[in-house]
Amino acid sequence: MGKKTNFSKVNAGSMADIAFLILIFFLVTTTIHSDSGIDRLLPKLQDESEIGLVQEKNILRVIINEEGDLLVDGQITALDELKETVKGFLDNGGLTKHDPEYCGYCLGDRSIISSDNPSRAIVVLSYDRKAYYSSYIAVQDKLMAAYNELRNREAQRLYGEDYTVLETKFVQPGTSDDSKILIKAKIESIRALYPLKLSEIETK
């Protein structure tokens, strides 16, 4: 008979305990940072009856039909013209100087048949269910561009830098917490001048 070879056994019973202790160590020592952001409400789907409570002159109706055509207040409009149309509506400032809600920073035409104040101005986006998604996204981009350009103008006037730059600084990892507090206050003050009042209604 051959000689028996004795193999030394490795006791692996404690390996699970060691792995568990390492896991506990990392769970206890790892710091998980929770980002503090500035909320942006996405447009909510509304019923036509809710919009009906607002004066018609304070509503800009943007419609995308089944073919992807764009209608603004009933007029066929090219996509490239949409941004300036929305800016003119938001920035109109139709109230007189004697009105408490007069918009002193508005640079629009101040037409009495258009929006009274940016805080009252509502853009209503209606779209056909069969409309192309690409058309919907393109219109959304133009609407947001109109808001951002007006906000950039006021941010430059008040703080010497664009609103979009402030938003970028706020989310950068290297921005200190103290700086974020100041930047957030600036962002919210600009948003108050041109609040995003964008509603969506699906056409039936």
How does this structure look, described?
41% of the residues lie in helices and 12% in strands. The chain has a five-stranded mixed β-sheet, with helices on one face. The model is unreliable at 36-42 (pLDDT under 50). Helix 5 runs antiparallel to helix 6 (177-193). With 204 residues, it is α/β, with parallel strands linked by helices. It has one domain (61-203). It is built from six helices and five strands. It is found in: Cell membrane.
Note the gap between the termini.
Answer: 92 Å
Radius of gyration: 28 Å
Low-confidence parts, pLDDT < 50 over ≥5 residues? 36-42
Number of domains: 1
Helical/strand content category: alpha/beta
Number of helices: 6
Q: How does the overall form come out from the CA principal axes? A: flat
Strand content: 5-15%
Mean pLDDT: 85
Note the main sheet: 5 strands, mixed
Order of helices and strands: HHEEEHEHHHE
Short précis:
By secondary structure, this protein is an alpha/beta fold.
List keywords for this structure.
single chain, transport, alpha/beta, protein transport, 204 residues, Biopolymer transporter ExbD, 12% strand, cell membrane, 5-stranded mixed β-sheet, flat
Strand and helix layout:
Elements: H1 15-29, H2 48-51, E1 59-64, E2 70-72, E3 75-76, H3 79-90, E4 122-128, H4 133-159, H5 163-171, H6 177-193, E5 198-203
Parallel strand pairs: 1-4, 4-5
Antiparallel strand pairs: 1-2, 2-3
Helix pairs in contact: 3-4, 4-6, 5-6
